[in-house]
Amino acid sequence: MASNSPAPEGIELQEAPTAGAWGEWNPTEDSARPPRGKHRVAKQRGGLARSSTVLGVGVIAAVGAGGIATAQDRPQVAISMPSLPDFGLGGGGVDGQHHAEAEGTATSARPTGIIAQQATQHADAGATLVGRILQQAESQETAADAQARAQAERAAQDAAAAEAKAKREAAEKEAEDARLAAETAAKEAKEAADAKAEQERPSKPSGSYSLPTSAYTLTSHYGDSGSMWSSGHHTGLDFAAPTGTPVKAVASGKITSAGWSGAYGYRIVLELEDGTEVWYCHLSSMSVTSGSVGAGDTIGRVGATGNVTGPHLHLEVRKGGSTTDPLAWLESKGLNV
Fold this sequence. Notes:
The chain is an alpha+beta fold.
């Protein structure tokens, strides 16, 4: 008969097999694997070490004291106990106790190791984050420095360009002023040289004829009408020139008259070989008053004597007592008046 005594604490009882169920029990490794979580029952204080011992105790408890006689009456059954693998259950002996203690130590050490590993991971992550932040700050600082340098370079370039532009404009203005001054000086020098050359230009004869004076300007021509002249028209050709300008003989001849002649002022009359008379009027002075002269000889000076409005040489050409156009006559002699 099965015993109704309670099983020891921590020991799982197995139901006794029926009479017909006795036979050889050969559990496999999978069928012998304890349910999840129940293998730790061996860790209770006072527990048994091996699963085989647990099984044996269960059989004894199932048979009970009253069932021993019945079991003796029955034929004995050969029970083969396989060597079950160690599923990590703690044993009852010294080795099992050491194993349990080592397992307990390892189990208790595992959380600390995990915490340390997590702390290390967090520390590494924090260090990585700090490194990234520092790198980003350094990159931003480098970018700011580069931007500041670029702005400074642009400002320096703008200032240099403005200074160069101002210098260029100043140089261009100075060059333009120098050019204008040079042109003005050259023009004035040319005008002065032309005037001097005109004054000093001799009356070169063309063949045997010469211009009556130099550095002149024709002002009144033969035949001009006006109240200034007593006859109502101009009877000669006026060569305006500064007072003192030399007056020359237009051709070879002799001086037949020299002196004051009323409205003509001081006058010299030169008679040429063909009988043509050339009158030189309004003279300031007379160099030759008589005798023969050659073409180009100085016989007097330009003046403003007589009836005049300014210094000039009044030249008349007379043939047979009648006046003729002096300009046409001089040009007919090959002179460029």
